[in-house]
């Protein structure tokens, strides 16, 4: 501990930490535009400038280590004026499109302009004219709104290991774009949306499916069903001012009904279904000498990453479709038959934490007879827009249960929402498959928590399994490199594209910090602790589906509806 | 299109790592006349760098071109002396006559345009250089004439 003086008060700071970290801990709000928690400072924006006595220039607090005895003024007239000037300069060539902008009301640039009292356009710069890149199934890029903070570039490279975007050009012509300035769709972008999560402005947003959904809802000939992913109920509340981690599952269901959806299903049901198939596949691979380690397949960004960057590992990917696609498939087969509705009449919507799910739903492998299993994918943010437009205050909506036959879930399926959840659910069911009994203690502590890499050895009824759980594709790439180099101790690997898993997916409410993500995760663990049915195989509705329709895991019907295949794809990488 | 095998160039640089990126790109351009996509992709694979990065670095520097040079490579000087003598108008005249921007090559492959900072011929300002030959005291009219004569030359030589 060292002592520093902040705004006239002596306070303690940790040796070696950056000033910004210390100031934030003290509850002092310092604006930042280029800082990313957990990554080395880039010092690009200078919004975090503070005055340090004895130093002639303002110091960027994000990149200035604390020094014993330093005297800091965070909001001196000079520091505040500098910040205001920076914002004014950023606005000099900005489109000023706020009223029509997706970030209106939660834009960091807009907020700073307001907080710093920008009332006139002090600098007039030539407007840059760029095309909006709408080529991607998941992400829309509008370079005119970009302030070149560089966060998207760094997240894409340093967290995701994808690096499909970088700064192009120089000086006033600098912009962010892909190799050869092509559309994102032909780049190595994996559609994860992590760039959207860090973008301070409306330069990045998801490709919206709202129009299609509204059209379907107002078409009397369409039967519109909706499913919501395991993580949605513990993140949506934040869009309505509630505390991170509040679980609004029941209110969410009611809200979806009020929005006009004919049936409301729970993707956690099909997460249980996924586990039945995936755990069976794992046991089958182990017993028959199949390709190991098996790797999970529910995160579509990861799948594209393997297909384009690590095609040698395609045989390691589980052939299971993701829960979204499994539910989509049984809705348009089993359910359509049971209810005597033509599959083409069904419009199947899913609410996902994820922008890559939009890409996944559009994959040609994910339709049968030219009918897509899932027709539209909305992010948590898009759903929140619908709920607001409908004038609903989620906090005051009375909860209702989901519809049968896809509304029941175990807590294992719910755990899919966080990194390690698929692993934990799979271990519970694999144990049961091998031994016929349930684990004495269902909780698998070693795979819980927000760490990017978690490894453990688990005993599944006589089988000694090496398991690894990684999130963030940079971490996944490292592990794949180890395996390619000869590492042999692993049997099963869970990979989530986004750091932390779906609770921190690219479609989730913006502006969540580490603490909020932890609260979302805890909410899922609380659900698991407090409910009775905690294994996928214990989900009675899933068992019924096998009895009435599918037969057995890995059977013919399952193979046809619930499994898929992958192929190498060429991209500019 | 001139396609150059990049491998010999990469071999020349041996085990040189990422710090050799710019010299490598220079060598490729030297041989190829420009940086083709294929070459940048190959350089990226060789150095273990994403192509987005290669493209980002290459576009940072004025010296790199991304289209093959035209039969007539036109360099317009925008140095101080030329600027004072009205080179902005000269550049505009070339852009309008050829319908290309600096760094680009006309579709027929005849012309490419480059802006240079100071070509070192201040006495001739404003000056244009076509395939190494200087044209002094340029005006809008002279630009049109020069381009027409290039087109004639190209037509004559088939
Ligand atoms: S990005 Fe922000 S400041 Fe720019 S138009 Fe959108 S809301 Fe306004
Ligand atoms: S969506 Fe993901 S992969 Fe694509 S640009 Fe953004 S961060 Fe990179
Ligand atoms: S797109 Fe957004 S995150 Fe990327 S550099 Fe521009 S403002 Fe920053
Ligand atoms: S946040 Fe410190 S320089 Fe951008």
Give a written overview of the molecule:
- The complex is a heterodimer of chains A (573) and B (158).
- Chain A is 34% helix and 14% strand.
- Chain A is built from 18 helices and 19 strands.
- Chain A is α/β, with parallel strands linked by helices.
- A five-stranded mixed beta sheet of chain A has the order 2-1-5-3-4, with helices on both faces. In chain A, strands 11-10-13-16 form a four-stranded parallel beta sheet, with helices on both faces. Chain A has a four-stranded mixed beta sheet with strand order 12-19-18-17, with helices on both faces.
- In chain A, helix 15 (473-484) links the parallel strand 18 and strand 19 (492-496).
- The mean pLDDT of chain A is 96.
- Chain B is 46% helix and 11% strand.
- Chain B is built from seven helices and four strands; from the N terminus they run ααααβααβββα.
- Chains A and B meet through strand 7 of A and helix 3 and helix 4 of B.
- One iron/sulfur cluster (SF4) binds at residues 146-152, 176, 198-201, 203-204 of chain A.
From the helix content, strand content and strand pairing of chain A, which structural class follows? alpha/beta
Note the overall shape of chain B: elongated
Range of helix content of chain A: 25-40%
Strand elements of chain A, count: 19
Spatial gap, N to C terminus of chain B: 18 Å
CATH architecture call of the largest domain in chain A: 3-Layer(aba) Sandwich
User: What is the name of the CATH class of the largest domain in chain A?
Assistant: Alpha Beta
Q: Quick one: CATH superfamily of the largest domain in chain B? A: Glutaredoxin
């Amino acid at each position: 501990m060292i002592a520093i003086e902040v705004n006239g008060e002596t306070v303690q700071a940790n040796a070696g930490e950056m000033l910004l970290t210390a100031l934030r801990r003290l509850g002092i709000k310092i604006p930042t535009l280029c800082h990313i928690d957990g990554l080395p400072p880039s010092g690009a924006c200078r919004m975090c400038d503070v005055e340090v006595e004895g130093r002639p220039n303002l110091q960027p607090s994000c990149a200035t280590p604390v020094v014993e005895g330093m005297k800091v003024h965070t909001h001196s007239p000079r520091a505040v004026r500098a910040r205001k000037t920076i914002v004014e300069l950023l606005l000099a060539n900005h489109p000023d499109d706020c009223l029509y902008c997706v970030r209106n009301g939660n834009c960091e640039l807009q907020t700073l302009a307001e907080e710093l009292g920008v009332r006139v356009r002090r600098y007039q710069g030539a407007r840059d004219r760029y095309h909006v890149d709408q080529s991607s199934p998941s992400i829309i890029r509008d370079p005119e709104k970009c302030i070149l903070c560089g966060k998207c570039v760094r997240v894409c490279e340093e967290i995701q290991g994808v690096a499909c975007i970088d700064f192009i050009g120089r000086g006033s012509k600098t912009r962010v774009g892909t190799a050869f300035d092509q559309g994102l769709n032909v780049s190595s972008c994996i559609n994860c949306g992590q760039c959207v999560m860090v973008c301070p402005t409306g330069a990045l947003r998801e490709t919206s499916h709202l129009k299609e959904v509204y059209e379907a809802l107002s078409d009397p000939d369409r039967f519109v069903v909706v499913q919501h992913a395991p993580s949605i109920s513990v993140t949506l509340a934040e869009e309505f001012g509630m505390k991170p981690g509040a679980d609004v599952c029941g209110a969410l269901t009611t809200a979806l009904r009020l929005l006009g959806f004919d049936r409301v299903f729970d993707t956690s049901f099909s997460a249980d279904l996924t586990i039945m198939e995936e755990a069976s596949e794992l046991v089958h691979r182990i017993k028959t000498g199949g390709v190991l380690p098996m790797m999970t397949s529910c995160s579509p960004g990861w799948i594209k990453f393997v297909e384009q960057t690590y095609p040698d590992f395609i045989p390691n990917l589980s052939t299971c479709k993701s829960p979204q696609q499994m539910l989509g498939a049984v809705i348009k087969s089993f359910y359509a038959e049971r209810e005597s509705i033509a599959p083409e009449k069904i419009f199947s919507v899913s609410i996902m934490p994820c922008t890559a799910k939009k890409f996944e739903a559009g994959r040609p492998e994910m339709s049968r007879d030219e009918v897509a299993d899932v027709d539209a994918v909305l992010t948590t943010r898009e759903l929140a827009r619908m709920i607001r437009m409908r004038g609903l205050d989620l906090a005051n909506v009375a909860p209702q249960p989901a519809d049968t036959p896809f509304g029941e879930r175990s807590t294992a399926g719910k755990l899919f929402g966080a990194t390690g959840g698929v692993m934990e659910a799979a271990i519970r069911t694999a144990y049961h498959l091998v031994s016929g009994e349930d684990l004495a203690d269902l909780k698998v502590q070693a795979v819980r928590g927000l760490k990017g890499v978690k490894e453990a050895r688990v005993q599944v009824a006589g089988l000694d399994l090496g398991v690894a759980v990684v999130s963030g594709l940079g971490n996944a790439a490292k592990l794949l490199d180890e395996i390619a180099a000869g590492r042999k101790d692993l049997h099963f690997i869970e990979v989530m594209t986004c750091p932390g898993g779906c609770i921190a997916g690219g479609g989730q409410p913006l502006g969540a910090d580490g603490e909020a993500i932890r609260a979302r995760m805890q909410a899922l663990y609380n659900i698991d602790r407090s409910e009775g049915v905690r294994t996928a195989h214990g989900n009675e509705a899933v068992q019924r589906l096998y009895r009435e329709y599918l037969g057995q895991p890995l059977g013919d019907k399952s193979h046809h509806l619930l499994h898929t295949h992958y192929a190498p794809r060429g991209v500019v990488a | 299109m001139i396609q150059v095998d990049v491998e010999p160039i990469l071999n020349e640089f041996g085990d040189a790592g990422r710090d050799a990126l710019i010299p490598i790109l220079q060598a490729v351009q030297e041989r190829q006349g420009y940086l083709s996509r294929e070459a940048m992709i190959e350089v990226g694979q060789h150095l273990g760098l994403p192509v987005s990065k290669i493209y980002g670095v290459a576009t940072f520097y004025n010296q790199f071109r991304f289209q093959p040079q035209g039969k007539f490579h036109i360099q317009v000087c925008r140095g101080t002396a030329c600027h004072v003598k009205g080179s902005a108008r000269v550049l505009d005249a070339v852009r309008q006559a050829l319908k290309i921007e600096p760094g680009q090559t006309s579709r027929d492959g005849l012309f490419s345009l480059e802006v240079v900072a100071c070509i070192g011929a201040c006495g001739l300002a404003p000056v244009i250089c076509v395939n190494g030959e200087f044209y002094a005291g340029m005006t809008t009219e002279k630009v049109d004439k020069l381009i027409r004569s290039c087109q004639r030359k190209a037509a004559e030589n088939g």
